[in-house]
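HUMAN: Mind sharing a backbone?

ASSISTANT:
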Amino acid sequence: MLSTLNRRSFLTGLGCTAAASPFLTPVTFASGTGENRLVVIILRGGMDGLDALRPYGDANFKSLKGRADQAKVTEQQDLDGFFALHPSLTGLMPLWKAGELGFAHAVSTPYRDKRSHFDGQDLLEAGGADLDGNIRDGWLNRMLQNYPGLQSETAYAVGRGDMFLMKGTAPVANWSPDAGLYGLTPQGLSLAGMLMEGDPLFEAAFSEAVSLSGESMGAMDVSNESGEMVMSAMRQSARDAAKGGGHVQIAEFAASKLKEASRIAAFSLNGWDTHANQSRTLAQPLTRLAEVILSLRSGVGEDVWGKTAVIAMTEFGRTARLNGNGGSDHGTGGLMVMSGGALRGGRVWSDWPGLGEADLYQKRDLMPTRDVRAYTGWLMRGLFGFDSGFIESTIFPGLDMGANPKLIT
């Protein structure tokens, strides 16, 4: 039997420790008694909403430094004569035409001026009005604390990269499709099972991870293999499993859970910090976002999709003008992407502020005209029936939800 030292040496070889298990990543689920589903995607890095959803109908857009080419849109990109999709998002056009895709433009959290990724993401996930430190759980967990009939998938005591969004007293489950379990061969799973055997912490976590993944463990005779040979084989299996498109695997796994008991899913997509060569560097994360949305739609099936809303939000927008490196710097107003069969889509919700110099926030950023939390709050009300006063006082303290944008069918 492999020793505890060897088990932990193997995990360390994968870049993991007991506090950073290879079986966990920031993908979280919760189950409950209602039929509607909510998927929250955090776009880490600050997405440029002016590029993702181009306001070419604003006469000042093409005059902004670096935006002239973005203002030249094709029929395939055009949504409504004013806004147009980035070319990497045009695969979502059928959803727009079906009323299953929408956007909230010129939105932001209450975060202003310092433009730190860390602070901006903390405020986005805490859901408060400021960073005073009084909020110690995430807004999605606060919602779950009051979700009727709440159950949970199996929760892990070990993990890495927990989303502050889901931190709190409500039970949630964590799982890692991209860190060495999802997609492992039966032989790899068998090796991993032997590796964890006899260690209560890792054996229990691994057993639950296998159960959640729906994988089956094959039988292997490794009685004549040394511990180091077993670990070497397992490392290679983990590396091979991790090579396949992680964002699609996350979406497919989320869809498989949402088809069953899960009602809430949350995860992150990285790569939105486009300080240079944005014409190239933004295309890949936007393509991934489109693939995730389409994978969720196909994965859950028509019936569940009709009860699902997907929201993608980022910590802040970016500067209205591009910089000397062809990129954009940290800004303020940005874009929220919404999708799902439960959405009353085919619209861009926006009190558009304009892009003239006098209209910009501090003469540099898109002026935010509505709080991103307000749209999220109205989605929660429409999907789950929460009282507006409760949303404003508990889920998003300090929020004024304002007029109902009627997001849900």
Summary: DSSP finds 13 helices and eleven strands in the chain.
